[in-house]
Write a structure and sequence with these properties.
By secondary structure, this protein is α+β, with helices and mostly antiparallel strands. The chain is 55% helix and 11% strand.
Length: 406
Amino acid sequence: MDSLITAAARALASGDALGALNYIALRDDPPALALRGIAMAQLGDLGRAKTLLRRAARAFGPPEAIARARCAVAEAEIALVSRDLDWPVNALDTAHDALERHGDRANAAHVRYLKIRYLLLIGRLDEAERLLVGFDPAPLPPASRAAHELVVAGIAMRRLRIKAAYAALARAQRAARQAHIPPLLAEVESAALVLDTPAARLIARGKERLLRLDDVEILLASKALVVDACRHAVCQSGKVISLETRPVLFALARALAEAWPCDVPRAALLARAFRAKHADESHRARLRVEISRLRKTLCEVAGINATKAGFALVPRRARDVAVLAPPADEAHATVLALLADGEAWSSSALALALGASQRTVQRALDDLAADGKVQTIGRGRARRWMTPPVPGFPTTLLLPAALPSG
């Protein structure tokens, strides 16, 4: 490798993309194309970066498998940054095997980190944690170690292991300082702010207050019966009863929990569950059926008693009942939670991360755009959606697989 390529690579490693381009901007040999692609990615021109990396991969000959693998890894990282989550993940595994085979353990470790980051984005936390077992970030340079610790912290936040999240962020901060890359240090500090930002509202006995993530961890570890409106579940002492696919039952559970220890009139339950302004006998019959279903679903943690006016929730072992709700009620809160990272997402990537149909996500985006809460860039297949983070809006509890499962 000649001196200019070496100097450009060192500049890129330190985050100096413009300095790297000064060395190789006019060259079209494969190593220069690859480094130019990485430089353009650091400068934010992701489309140009992809083109240059693909040209470099094609230009490297068959004996240069390690160089082609590095190009594939760089392209995968660009796909993650641009939230192009439907790129072929198997390409990462192929690149990892090639790098391991040729002894490039530092880049092989970086590939594993990218795979974990991808799994985190789409909410597959169990798989991400399995890859972390035995993963040694020591071969990574300081910048990559900081990024790795950010992923570890992200998983810990979604699992509500807040002490572990603090520890990972401290390690990320030390690595970022060693890397001497100001934007990376700013990213770590921004992630740390999440732990001090209100993540939910506690509604109990007619009163409300804001909770941080560590408060949420304490609440869910307590013996209280918690109706979680962030994940549409009922939780107690580590047991989680998911109602995510049963919106009517969840609406009834939340209404009963908000009113506890009092009962809820039948008319109010009809309005909450069925949005019925003028209830007739068919609505009342359906309410009896849904209450029966909810009673059966929650039988291990609570009963539901009929009263003269309506129905009341009766916890079996818990002394307190609470509702955990987003800081601000929002019809499309889960979509906003993903967009709050400030990156530009495609509707297909949002659908993949949320486990929803693309049509459902598109309707939510259209509603949010009509309200001025999101904006678009590009057209057609290149169309992306983004929004600046909303102050005080939850960005962790509403993300995929944010809460523990029982």
